[in-house]
Amino acid sequence: MKKWLVAALCVMLALSLVACGGDAGNGGGTDGKLTKENVKIGLIYIGDPSDNGYNYAHEKGRLYMQEQLGLRDDQMIVKANVSEDSACADAINELIESGCNIIFANSFGFMDFMDEAAKEHPEVYFCHATGIKSNETNFCNYFGRVYQPRYLAGIAAGMRTETNKLGYVAAFSNSECNSGINAFTLGAQSVNPDIEVIVKYTNSWYDPTGERQAAEALLDQGCDVIAQHVDTTGPQVAAQERGKWGCGYNNDMTEFAPDAHLCAPVWNWGAIMTQLVEDALNGTFTGGIHLGSMAIGTCYLSPLSKNVAPGTEEKIKEAYDRIVDENDEFDVFNGPIYDNEGNLQIAEGEKASDLLIAQQMTWLVKGVRVD
Fold first, then answer.
1. Distance in angstroms (rounded) separating the CA atoms of residues 103 and 310
2. Fewest CB atoms within 10 A around its CB: which of 62, 110, 199, 262?
3. d(Cα 208, Cα 202) in Å, to the nearest integer?
4. Contact assessment for residue 226 and residue 219, using Cβ atoms and an 8 Å cutoff
5. 251 contacts 268 by C-beta, under 8 angstroms
6. H-helix segments, 192-331
């Protein structure tokens, strides 16, 4: 593994990902005081950790958090394969009835149920991955600047393609997915201006069959690199079977597509989850949005596989160094940036705000087509 990748991974493991200051929230145990002995953590997953993708990444985060905090097995309850409907409300209630005083939920569609529960149970802390809702006391939203490693993955894809057509399997047309599509496209175009990215939305975060079928349809259209913002390894397996390439997500998927996979934007959920629990234990928990970055290890690019094109490592290192350098004005979403209808979205000399990236990026950049 090259030095710059080793350094990024070391930072990921060594540092806490968010600084949460301010007054203590209203959450906590029955007496308002949490300790490592009485804390009990519930976790709600939209799928199963066996997906080797998003839910697996969260399960790794849970185990990391348990080790870092020294918690017993009986201090954690996991509810997997929970759908984004009343089943989520039921899961939350069951966790509270089981004594959980901190609850994590990992899917966008759990947001409204977490929001309502936070209002009804001010004594409990609620931590929601992705989404756009939170409060100032006992309900936080945690995520990261995953568009940064997506830009790097785009460089790998742009250098590998032979057709100049990249496929992208995405869950929904929302800011979370669209900012990733845009970053990936801009990264690819930075090394290959002739790139076209074709997107298929599955309208589901977790649909093993639909994800694979979407990838196969993109391959049928001549795409020779398949990227994804969905939960399973299906798109990468489809690329492998067709003799093409791919960029996974959430987890290094090289094991599942050894002759296709180039790299993947991946998460270290465990560090931010650990920090949030520690804040609750210390009485410094705050609601609101908690974003981490590639510089501090919230998200990063997996090691490059043997399948990348010559020169890829050097190009990615150059971009990586600029992104993580706080003294460099380079940013993934530096203007001028036009959307795929020709409208100027980010003017020259400007860059996208966190609000635009996280919640308002409903448009797609020039060079992207939705199938």
1. 45
2. 62
3. 10
4. yes
5. no
6. 208-220, 234-241, 269-282, 312-324
CA angle 52, 278, 73 (to 5 degrees): 55
The set of residues, in sequence order, having a beta carbon less than 8 Å from that of 154 and lying 6+ positions away, is: 183, 184, 185, 186, 187, 188, 189, 190, 227, 247
272 touches 258 (CB < 8 A) = no
Rg (CA), the chain: 20
Check: CB of residue 232 under 8 Å from CB of residue 53: yes
Token pair listed for 128: 């929601």
Residue 130 is given by DSSP the state S
Q: What's the number of CA atoms in the CB half-sphere (13 Å) around residue 182? A: 29
Residue 250 three-state SS:
strand
At 111-127, the pLDDT tens digits run 999 999 999 999 999 99
pLDDT of residue 76: 98
CB within 8 Å of 258: residues ≥ 6 apart: 240, 305
pTM confidence score = 0.80
